[in-house]
Design goal:
291 residues; seven-stranded mixed β-sheet; 13% strand; binds zinc ion; alpha/beta
Length: 291
């Protein structure tokens, strides 16, 4: 078998078609959701390309994009979501509402800054936007991700960075990893940032949440007929993460698609009381409301 040439582009423009072929016909998977994520990646890839080539000057001080860029990407994301859920009436209101907000404020919400997220949701409710909080946040996160990826794109390309010292949070933007993969080329583990999409190497033996390195504290769960997709449960911190292995899957993966293809692993982990690594701060926010 020829080795696949895995895409190092954040939104994996070349990889997705091949990855989608692998999911085709598998009735255990949520096909509409896979289609949606693939469409969103195409929108994000285009939006990223419109931001210009080369590195932004001094990433933290890069100027915001044209307002037209923002409205166009928000409109496209909202349209893709509306295609998927034609009865969700609030979506067009979400688009209109978001397009009038301050760009840096939207950036803060896309980066999961608690105060910005609270203000965003309160503001939307006050403006009479009839839409679930999770959907509003999803639109913001998806629409802003190409800009975040571009703004923080000053790090070495995937594979050129050392796994030591281990970085649990994204070395580009500080976001939390949403999933991991074991790369085709060398089996190395890479984490993908849930905020900006950057991927960076991380030691295979450590928990990606607490860095526990004792193999006995980590339980690996997978099904016999899908051994390329695994759940890692860490007894030390009670968090879990999912890993897709490109060598066992015999192809390149795009982790936001793999995230959909592995929802049954999330279910397994939650049933046993484990918390996802990426949701850790949202989780503690949720439990804080009980007092
Ligand atoms: Zn990041
Ligand atoms: Zn741990």
């Amino acid at each position: 078998l020829p080795k696949p040439l895995c895409d190092t582009d954040v939104f994996a423009a070349a990889t997705i078609g091949e990855a989608m072929l692998r999911y085709q016909g598998n009735s255990a998977l949520n096909q509409p959701m896979l289609q949606l994520v693939a469409s969103l990646a195409a929108i994000q890839s285009r939006a990223y390309g419109m931001l210009g080539s080369g590195l932004p000057p001094g990433s933290e001080r890069a100027s915001p994009p044209e307002h037209a860029w923002l409205t166009s990407v928000i409109d496209s994301v909202v349209a893709a979501l509306a295609d998927q859920a034609p009865n969700s009436q609030g979506l067009s209101e979400v688009g209109q509402h978001l397009a009038n907000l301050d760009f840096e404020f939207l950036m803060a919400a896309a980066r999961h800054e608690e105060e910005a997220v609270d203000r965003l949701l309160t503001g939307a409710a006050q403006a009479g936007v009839h839409c679930e909080a999770a959907t509003i946040l999803y639109v913001v996160k998806t629409a802003l991700q190409p800009y975040l990826a571009w703004r923080f794109a000053s790090l070495p390309a995937l594979g050129e960075m050392s796994a030591y010292p281990p970085r649990r949070d994204c070395p580009a933007c500080g976001g939390k990893p949403m999933m991991a993969k074991h790369a085709h080329e060398d089996g190395r583990r890479y984490l993908r940032c849930g905020v900006c999409g950057h991927e960076w190497p991380f030691p295979r033996l450590l928990c990606i949440s607490c860095e526990a390195g004792d193999p006995s504290s980590i339980e690996v769960v997978y099904s016999q007929d899908d051994q390329g997709r695994r759940l890692y449960l860490c007894a030390a911190c009670r968090r879990y993460f999912k890993v897709s292995d490109e060598r066992m899957l015999e192809g390149c993966v795009y982790l936001p698609l793999e995230d959909i293809a592995t929802v049954q692993l999330d279910e397994l982990a939650r049933q046993q009381g484990y918390v996802p690594v990426a949701d850790s701060d949202l989780q503690s926010r949720g439990t804080g409301s009980s007092n």
